[in-house]
Structure prediction request, 1120 residues.
Amino acid sequence: MTSTEFQAVVLAAGRGSRLPEVLGDAPKCLLPIGPHPLLWYPLTMLQRHNFSEAIVVVLEHQKVEIQQALERTPIKIKVDYATIPYDSDFGTADSLRYIYDRIKSDFLVVSCDIVSNVSLYPLINKFREHDAALALLLFKSGFESDVVLPGPKNKHKPERDIIGIHPDTQRLAFLLAASDCEDTLNIQRHLLKDRGQLNVYGRLLDAHIYVLKKWVINYLHTKENISTFKGEFLPHLIKKQHVKRSAKLQQDTTSELGVNTKPGDNILHYVPTTALNQKITQTSLFNDSLSHVPYHGDAVRCYAIQAPREAIGVRVNSTLSFCALNRKLASIWNDLCGESYPLIALGATVKSTQTKEIIVADNAKLSEKTSLNYSVFGPNCVVNPKNIVSNSILMSNSIVEEGCNIDNCIVGHKAHVKSGSVLKNCLIGPNYVVEEDSKNQSVHLSNADEYMEIDIQ
Amino acid sequence: MAQFEKEIVQAVLIADNNVWNFKPLSDDNSTALLPLVNVSMLDYALIALNRSGVEEVFVYASLFLQNIRDYIKQGIETYASWSFKMKVQVIGGEGCRCFGDAMRDLDAKALIRGNFILLGADTVTNADLRPVLEQHKRTAKFDKGAAATLVFKQCSNNLRTGNELLIALDNRNDRLHYHQRLRMNQRETRFPIPLDIFLNNSSVALHHNLLDPQIAIGSPSMLSLFSDNFDFQTRDDFIRGLLINEELLDSRIYVALLPPTQYAHKVNNWLSYQLVSRDIINRWAYPLVPDMGVYKLQQEYVFHKDNIYKSHDAHVPKVALRENVVVQTGSHVGTGTVISNSVLGANCRIGKNCELSNVFLMADVTILDGCQLEFCVVGTGATINENCIIKSGAVIGNKCVLPAKTQLAKKLVSAVKPSQEYVLETIGPHAYIISDSATDDPGDSDNEDLLPQQTQCIPKMGDLPSHLQPEDSDYSSSSEEDGSRAPTPLPDDTNIFLSEVVDSLTRGFREKSNPDFLILEINSSRYAYNMSLKEVNFNVVKAVFGMQSIREPANNNVLGAINAAFKQLGTVVSNYIKSPDAMLDCLKALEDVCEENDLVREKISQVVHYLYDKDFVTESAILAWYNQLDDEEHATLKQSLTKLVDWLNQSSEDDDEEDDESE
Prediction:
């Protein structure tokens, strides 16, 4: 086992509860984004940053499926699977705690749903520079803003985070979900005092890319009541930045165990410090300010880096972002992945002559006399002649018969659109059969009941 | 036509601010004419405007109108430095009682033609406001509803003078979204800010370290907004009103921050008076420094090292001046006297062997031999006889005569006897200590934009904490906060309940409302937060001691404050504290109070004795409580109670004996 500076952990055990329409029973991390499954994107990103291996956390019963799917993709990074049991209460923090013993160094935690071309080096460098406990990456949101979600109209309410950052130091002051707040946000005085300006952002997107110190997982390991990483552990850790090493506490650490304080309780027991280290920080000119105690004496430090404006960063965690990304993928493909990966798979047969910005996966058959624009065609899907498909996503094994006009739709796995249908803004569930000459607009067509029957078969 | 007319820069200067805060010196003359480092405050404001290229100034005054008129007239006649290229007019506002009235009056008079600079006469600044004015004009071009641009200055706000602010700004266009004045005495632990601000704007900057020097650029619409909303009394009302009714009034406020090199501060009370004097002497407000001839175009002082400014014809022995001292013409200092960080007005006479530090003498003050003065202000023509000791923020009014060997601290002394009950004590035929509590009669006396009634006493001078000290103490306090913060990130019901009870009691105490209503209020809060009886008992007592009047009692007389509180609220307390268990709760609450309130801790045995005397707690409850106090944790508390407990034991034995005898 070679010792590396950073290990990478990709969390791919999500159940995709926010995209039930398109997911069916497939694992979330295998959602088709263009020609590749979702998981391929974070892995490629890690690969681009010279990670040679990554721990991928998957659900036990999905491991084989995911493994097979990844083997079909052009990926060089060594994937080390870690399985967690299927249990609906198992949160992301639980997952990390579960693989606790496999983490030997500082590590990156990456969510499987991030599709981005951003460079992680600024993030990692910030982490190194300030000996931080945590560094996280923020994107500007709004990638999906101009996309209309197919299916019945409903108010899409994006989940938003309220993020406080000190602009001078890029220290993270707080991070909370807007939905967790009441009408007012209580900002503690110590976040403002002596720290100058505090910028509060309401429209930034947490990329779910975290760089963490090794000791953080030790600490997390003891916090067994914390279940989710983003929702509970992060705010907890960020809050703990301001814990001061009191004189009393120092005594306790030196003289074995204190009577009253439980060693597992205080985060500072986990922060490795030596007297020498402290002296170095105090005397070093290399810290965030000269006019006060370095880092205000904080031992735990969390930083946030904002990705540059032109960077692409999307989290595929809802049907809307799934839809938006697939539709725009062809136009941003070169920025995202470079030219080394083809958009039209070698095994696909494209006979259509009128195409614009389409992505075609393996074994898809696109017949002649079709007009196909801004669309994604999954593996093994079939489009017969005389069809117009635009702004749509055809998932694997779906079939479109002749003479259809499909606009801004998602056609699910193994769905079948019979000839002469006109569909606009529709969501077609997996295995659904659209009858001949049907005309639909803004509906969600699925056969949840039938679906069950098929499942039993 | 209009476009050919050159737009002239106009400014409005509001005189007569903070009248109450500058008592008793504000009794005889306008606060605008109060000398600050021997130059009246009005001059500083006028010079600031002159330096910013203002061509026409309206000085708005209501109290001592004639004095201001004469002063301006005299200034113009003697070619005061601000009188060049600037037209100054005094507008009298009879019956004008607040800032809002002044603005409404100005609107009615229709003197303001365009964007204008609005300044208080109490502002000392060397800032060039031209860029800010330009910024305002640019903003107004984009946003027709831009009513004002407020000018703030960054500072460290370890010391509160009542000018500190927390604001939320939009990072993209500097628009103000939230405005909160920080309280003087109390240190807030958290700031509640409406969530919508952050949700509706992508990037909001919170500034906590700002100082409000009361400078603003107003659009013409600002005046009409005051006219339309007759409930706007102060500038803060205006800001609050606009922020709340943004859409309704279709007006917005913008903010400009002064660059770090420019100085601006508002002199709104004696504490800021001391601060600004220090800054002027230390040349932070350059070129508004004594030796530049701020007011008259002539050299008044010679500038020596250690920031000593001495007039040519002042007679001062060389050793007497330590550092940061200004001595006006005609002053005489006796031998053996040491002066530091002080300002001496014209023709002051100081005897031998005096010690003066942080003392501000107006003109013609006489101090006789052997006096010790520290952190105090002495008005024009006052006389202080031999061997007086005056310190910690005392203010001696004009023409006072203090008898020999007077000792004063934190007192306001007036020469003339005020008519009513304000007099606390008479120390001489020309010296009466007057009340410094601002809550007595604020409506009548503060003429201009005073803070909402948050302060109880006039803020006084004192030892300024050096830069490092408060930080240290703050660290420790924040680490304490940490301890309590970790388990309870949100205010739990108990705390909300406690604060509600404190509010109820404070209001009840102030308004002398019926105790029954208070009990009803507390009970309804109790059910709202589902408090057990024990918790209610505990918190009610804690709340009584948590009232502001006890936390920060006048003159630190905590026993007096407690007595006053219990006189009014005793019925409420005794309604809850009936059973022996309740008494124990009551005493336990005292334990908590002791930890939070130093004054109570010092006097704990008297406090307990008082409660015993007034039959709130019985002897057995006190003894039971005393016995269960932890020896180590409450060592000091126990120690201070020992005497009382001994006495109680004694008397109970006596009682027993009596009982025995009777049997």
About this structure: Residues 490-662 of chain B form a domain with the Serine Threonine Protein Phosphatase 5, Tetratricopeptide repeat fold (CATH 1.25.40.180). Confidence is low (pLDDT under 50) at residues 439-455, 467-490, 657-663 of chain B. Chain B touches chain A at residues 154, 156, 166, 168, 171, 187-196, 198-209, 471, 474-475, 478-479, 481-482, 485-486, 489-490 (CB under 8 Å). Chain B has 21 helices and 32 strands.
